[in-house]
Every structure is written in C-alpha cells, then in structure tokens.
C-alpha cells in the first residue's frame, strides 16, 4: 500500500493551495447516518503527530478556505489519516465536506496539537476515555496505538450517543481491532467499549455522567470507583458533557493535566458541532 500524496494524479484545485498546508487526496468515505460520516485521506510522508491530537482541515473551494479543528482518528503509525465528522446543516465547512468523494482534495494545516495525549497523563493502571458522539475520534486514534496498552492495564472507552445508529463507527472500530492480527494480540482483553444511548430504546438508556454518579459504570465493567491512585481519564464531548464529566473527575480526586504539566485527567472539546 502506498499512501503518499501524488500531486500528479490529483485534480487541479479551483484555487491555489495556500502556504503551510498539505493538499491530500480523499481515499475513502463512509456515511453512517444523516449526521455522521468518516473519511480517509493520504498522509504526507513527513507529517508527524501524537495519537489523540487534532489538526485544522479545510477544502480548496475558496480563496480563503474555512478551516476547522478535527481530531486525527487514526493512530500515529497509520499510513493514512482518518477523520470522523458530524454534518452540520449550513455549517461553513461540513456542508461541503460531507459531499467529498474519493479523489477529491482536502487541505490540512501542517501542525498537529492537543491535550488528549498519553504524555499529558501521569502513569496509572486504568485509562478511562469518556466520549459523546464525534468525541470518540481522538480515542479512535489512542485505542489503536500500542503505546496505550504498554502504559495501561485496562482501557475503558465510553461513548454516549443520541441514537443507536450513531454507535456504528465505534462498533466497527472495535471489530477492526479484533480482526487485526497484530493489534488484537496487543489489545487482548484490555479494551472495554461501554456504550449508552439517550434518545432511543437501548439496554443502557442513560448519559455516562448518570452512570458514573450512581456507580453503575464501575459495577458494569468490574472496576472500583474512579480513584486518583490507579485511574487516569480523558474526556471529549460537547461543552456540557465535558464540564459535567470534569466535575465528576475532580470530585473523585483527579487533577487536570496538560502537555506542560501532566495530571490525572485531561479534556478537549469535540470540535465541530
Ligand atoms: P441527551 O440526549 O440526554 O441530551 P450531542 O449530540 O448533543 O452532543 O449529544 C451527544 C450525547 O451526549 C447525547 O446522548 C446527550 O444526551 C449526551 N449529553 C448531552 N449533555 C450531556 C452532559 N452534560 N453530560 C453527559 N452527557 C450529555
């Protein structure tokens, strides 16, 4: 598989490529619901990032393209780059982005950054990854990175969505990991995917915050309640979810960290909403 960008085969964009950005080719697009889709693009050879980081992306459809922050959903070792996106009605980027097809060009700024990285966490035993909707994207990267399993004995990925169909991306991801010979061996039984759905009938029809509060999450996954001694957490979702989950982490004694000062939990907003 050669995944490097090949300018020669790319269609000529309507506008010149701005300085400081990569122009990459769309390889694959998959739509899950009216609100969600994923796509893969070529990866520039020299582009480096840490699993869990985000990057600014745009389309070459205007002289001054609109850029939005997108979590890199693929792990840092992957030869391609994957994104998981919401479709915002009337959204200046996603209105167009949702129509991309293989062969189209996507612009990507050259610098990746973010706080949902293993470096921002102190060593621990159990890693909780709390997400809602497209907030799963940075964790899609981290759960496919062997380093996550070198650092943690147990990785609990939680995702809360409005509808059952919105869990497809995450479910597919877990299936892919299980089907991958190398990754499945590394992951073993360390990874737990814990799903909840709030606006349709589902075995767990609750927000993750309710399940943390009443302890059902911990009982369900067979773990003791959240503790700064053993547990680390990352949070990615809407502002409301992020604030509420942060409060629960703080109440449990966890301390927010950053790249410059690692802590026992880190947060990042799920960007395009
Ligand atoms: P709910 O359906 O009860 O609002 P959204 O698409 O709006 O970002 O929501 C994604 C999921 O996050 C929904 O299931 C939603 O539940 C849930 N959610 C919204 N606010 C919070 C919150 N403060 N804490 C936890 N989950 C939340």
Name a few traits of the molecule:
single chain, 273 residues, alpha/beta, Elongation Factor Tu (Ef-tu), domain 3, Rossmann fold, 2 domains, 6-stranded antiparallel β-sheet, 8 helices, 11 strands, globular, disordered N terminus, binds adenosine-2'-5'-diphosphate
What does this structure look like?
The chain has 273 residues and is of the alpha/beta class. Helices cover 22% and strands 27% of the residues. The chain has helices at 94-97, 137-142, 146-151, 168-179, 181-187, 208-213, 216-221, 239-251, and strands spanning 21-31, 36-42, 54-58, 68-71, 80-86, 105-109, 126-132, 154-161, 191-197, 231-237, 265-269. The strands form two sheets. Strands 4-3-6-1-2-5 form a six-stranded antiparallel sheet, with no helix packed on it. Strands 9-8-7-10-11 form a five-stranded parallel sheet, sandwiched between helices. Helix 8 links the parallel strand 10 and strand 11. The model is unreliable at 1-8 (pLDDT under 50). Bound molecules: adenosine-2'-5'-diphosphate (A2P).
CATH topology of the largest domain: Rossmann fold
Number of discrete domains: 2
Report the bound ligands by name, code or SMILES: adenosine-2'-5'-diphosphate
Helix/strand/pairing category = alpha/beta
Q: Which regions contain 5 or more consecutive residues with pLDDT less than 50?
A: 1-8
**Widest sheet, order of strands:** 4-3-6-1-2-5
What is the overall shape? globular
> Please, what is the average pLDDT?
94
Number of strands: 11
Number of helices: 8
Annotated CATH architecture of the largest domain: 3-Layer(aba) Sandwich
The share of residues in extended strands comes to 25-35%
Q: Biggest β-sheet: count, sense, barrel? A: 6 strands, antiparallel
Give the radius of gyration.
Answer: 18 Å
Order of helices and strands: EEEEEHEEHHEHHEHHEHE
The end-to-end distance, rounded to whole angstroms, is: 34 Å
CATH class identity of the largest domain: Alpha Beta
State the oligomer: single chain
């Amino acid at each position: 598989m050669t995944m490097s960008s090949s300018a020669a085969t790319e269609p000529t964009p309507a506008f010149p490529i701005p300085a400081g950005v990569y122009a990459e080719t769309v390889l694959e697009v998959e739509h899950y619901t009216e609100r969600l889709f994923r796509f893969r693009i070529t990866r520039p050879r020299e582009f480096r990032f840490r699993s869990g980081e985000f990057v600014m992306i745009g389309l070459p459809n205007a002289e001054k393209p609109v850029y939005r922050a997108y979590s890199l959903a693929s792990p840092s070792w992957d030869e391609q780059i994957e994104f998981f996106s919401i479709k915002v009605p009337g959204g200046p980027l996603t209105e167009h982005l949702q129509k991309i097809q293989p062969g189209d060009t996507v612009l990507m700024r050259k610098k990746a950054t973010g706080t949902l990285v293993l470096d921002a966490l102190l060593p621990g035993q159990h890693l909780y990854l709390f997400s809602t909707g497209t907030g799963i994207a940075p964790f899609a990267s981290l759960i496919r990175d062997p380093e996550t399993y070198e650092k943690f004995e147990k990785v609990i990925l939680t995702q809360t969505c409005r509808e059952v169909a919105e869990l497809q991306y995450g479910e597919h991801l877990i299936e892919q990991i299980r089907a991958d010979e190398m990754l499945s061996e590394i992951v073993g039984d360390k990874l737990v995917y814990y799903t909840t759905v709030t606006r349709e009938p589902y075995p767990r029809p609750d927000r993750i915050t309710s399940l943390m509060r009443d302890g059902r999450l911990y009982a369900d996954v067979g773990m003791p309640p959240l503790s700064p001694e053993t547990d680390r957490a990352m949070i990615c979702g809407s502002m409301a979810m992020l604030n509420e989950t942060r409060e629960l982490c703080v109440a449990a004694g966890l301390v927010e960290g950053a790249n410059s000062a690692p802590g026992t939990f880190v947060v990042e907003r799920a960007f395009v909403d």
